[in-house]
Specification:
Strand order of the largest sheet: 6-7-8-3-9-10
CATH superfamily of the largest domain: ABC transporter type 1, transmembrane domain
Number of strands: 10
Radius of gyration: 37 Å
Oligomer: single chain
Number of helices: 22
Strand content: 5-15%
Largest sheet: 6 strands, mixed
Length: 613
């Protein structure tokens, strides 16, 4: 029930469109029944011998709203009987015209419902996908250490698609099919209460069948959607790693793995389709059985002319026609419930993301963060990833305008120490202070406005060079963008491209070389003009010539700026103010390049490995 309420909330966030869908469906149901009931006078003309009735009197309404239906029916019968007495062919033509008008209006309103629900369903999908993507952008980096990008894409694509189907199913389940059943059952009771009671046998049997199939369908659908996430991940990994796959002749291995995942997905989805589609088949079979039962009972009542339950042929045929229309909404309820059960698994997967703990919380009353005046301090900072301590009791002061380098073996905690400052992660213990202000007490956006980052991997987007350099700084002028590129030694190669700064660089910047991509990333950080720089292996992707050009630019950029440099290539950090040597999450040594060499400890050993000692 909770899932249905959630779908209801999604749907009625577009209240006007939802009401129009409901109204059109209601009018569709009414005109659908009317188009059938209007056949009764035609049947009477055929089954009842034409007898001239003189002095026909029009019925009079007693003013009671409850009797309005009977009055309209009696008046219509009176009008038809009068017309049949005068000219039977004219009466037949009138019936045909009124039935056609009813069918026309029925289909107009049915299309009206489809017209409005086509926009409604996609508006709901758009809203949910927006929420999912926004939430994904706000989740901490630690979330992406556990989740596959392919699985997130599957949730935004196929799982959201199931919600689209559920929106229509919910509207039909609550605002069309029950109304159709009530109207049709009322008509059946009016025509023959005895046959109506017999027809009710179908309802409990159908409910039991729907219940059993629905529970099984939900379980299978959930497994299918999870397998879809694995399938998307397999595709994403294969396409992203195509260079390595080809280099190691691993195409058969990767394709074999994909085939296995794809086969499992196909088997699960096939099973879900079969379970969903068997519901209307069983309903139709049960409906046919009950229909034949009604034919037997109704036929007996027609043949037994002396019984008090005697039924006329025209009423019986009308009853059968109306009852056949009752099966459609019952079958519709069955299908809608099956779709809602199937979508419940997708709802659960979507809610796992929407309800995921963001972990990096904004302060309720954030302190405004001015430009750095004194220093940044790490005080007794420890950080745990799951159950493993990555950093242990770090104490570090970085004075304004000074540059420090973090060095150590892979996995020593260098990048993590840098990631704690812009709050990509929050410390497990201790605190980080920005001029005596705990960074947890200020706005995340405000904090990150003071920090520029150049990462080891050049993260560029499928747009122009101009847009990549001005990423997040849309009000930048072309002059400012060009100046940043010149400082990053990127202006010359940009101007040699076909469209200069308007050149599209392709997905992840693949139209550029590694060195060119890194210089674009550095230009982006330069344009931001931050107080604090975090350079995470900023020159690692550059060739020797480009490295010198960019290093000179970075040296100029770091003057009078507080800089944290994460480095493996120790030749790039000779001139920093302090070098911090990390090992297994702890500070082992600290000092200048010459001081640490003189110690002949961990830093000396690292330099020896790189031929610098």
């Amino acid at each position: 029930m909770k899932g249905i309420i959630e779908i209801y909330r999604y749907t009625f966030s577009h209240k006007g469109r939802s009401i129009l869908v409901i109204l059109c469906n209601l009018l569709f149901v009414l005109f659908n029944l009317l188009s059938l009931v209007l056949f009764i006078p035609f049947l009477q003309l055929i089954f009842v011998p034409a007898v001239k009735v003189l002095n026909l009197k029009a019925p009079i309404w007693n003013g009671q709203l409850f009797d309005l239906g009977s009055y309209v029916t009696d008046y219509y019968n009176y009008y038809m009987q009068k017309m049949a007495n005068e000219d039977p062919k004219q009466a037949l033509l009138f019936v045909c015209v009124t039935v056609f008008i009813s069918f026309l209006l029925k289909n107009i309103f049915r299309y009206g419902a489809i017209w409005h629900q086509s926009e409604l369903r996609m508006a709901v999908v758009r809203d949910i996908r927006n929420k999912l993507f926004e939430k994904s952008l706000n989740l901490p980096l630690s979330f992406y250490n556990n989740e596959r990008k392919g699985d997130l894409m599957a949730r935004m694509n196929s799982d959201v698609g199931e919600i689209e189907v559920a929106v229509i199913s919910m509207l039909e389940l609550f605002f069309r099919e029950p109304i159709a059943i009530i109207i049709n059952v009322t008509a059946l009771i009016y025509l023959s209460p005895q046959l109506t009671i017999i027809s009710f046998i179908l309802l409990p049997i159908t409910a039991l069948v729907i219940s059993r199939i629905g529970k099984s369908l939900k379980r299978t659908a959930k497994k299918g959607q999870e397998q879809m996430g694995l399938l998307f991940s397999s595709m994403e990994e294969g396409l992203s790693g195509i260079r390595v796959i080809k280099a190691f002749n691993a195409v058969p291995q990767v394709f074999g793995s994909f085939k296995k995942v794809n086969l499992n997905h196909q088997q699960l989805i096939t099973k879900a389709f079969r379970k969903r589609d068997i519901s209307p088949v069983l309903n139709e079979t049960l409906g046919a059985a009950v229909m034949l039962g009604l034919v037997w009972f109704g036929g007996s009542m027609i043949l037994d002319k002396e019984s008090s339950q005697h039924l006329t042929g025209d009423i019986f045929i009308t009853f059968i026609i109306v009852f056949s229309q009752l099966l459609r909404p019952i079958q519709g309820i069955s299908t809608s419930l099956a779709n809602l059960n199937k979508s419940k698994a997708s709802q659960d997967r979507i809610n796992e993301i929407l309800n995921a703990d963001e972990k990096i919380y904004e302060s309720s009353n954030p302190i405004e963060l001015p430009e750095l005046k004194v220093d940044i301090r790490y005080e007794n900072v420890s950080f745990k990833y799951k159950d493993e301590l990555v950093l242990k009791n770090i104490n570090l002061t970085i004075a304004k305008g000074k540059s420090i380098a973090l060095v150590g073996e892979s996995g020593s905690g260098k990048s993590t120490l840098g990631d704690l400052l812009p709050r990509f992660y929050d410390v497990t213990e201790g605190t980080i202070l920005f001029d005596n202000i705990p960074i947890k007490d200020c706005s995340i956006q405000d904090l990150r406005n003071h920090i520029g980052i150049v990462s080891q991997e050049s993260i560029l987007f499928n747009s122009s060079i101009r847009e990549n350099i001005a990423f997040g700084m849309l009000d930048s002028t072309i002059a400012q963008i060009q100046q940043a590129a010149k400082i990053a030694n990127a202006h010359e190669f940009i101007m040699n491209l076909e469209n200069g700064y308007d050149t599209n660089i392709g997905e992840r910047g693949n139209k550029l070389s590694g060195g060119q991509k890194q210089r674009i990333s550095i230009a982006r950080a330069i344009l931001k003009n931050p107080n604090i720089l975090i350079l995470d292996e900023a020159t690692s992707a550059l060739d020797t010539e480009s490295e010198k050009l960019v290093q000179d630019a970075l040296d100029n950029l770091m003057k009078d700026r507080t800089s944290i440099i994460i480095a493996h290539r120790l030749s790039t950090i000779r001139n920093v103010d302090e070098i911090i040597v990390l090992s297994k999450g702890e500070i082992k040594e600290r000092g200048t390049h010459n001081e640490l060499l003189a110690l002949k400890g961990a830093y000396y050993n690292l330099c020896s490995l790189q031929g610098m000692s």
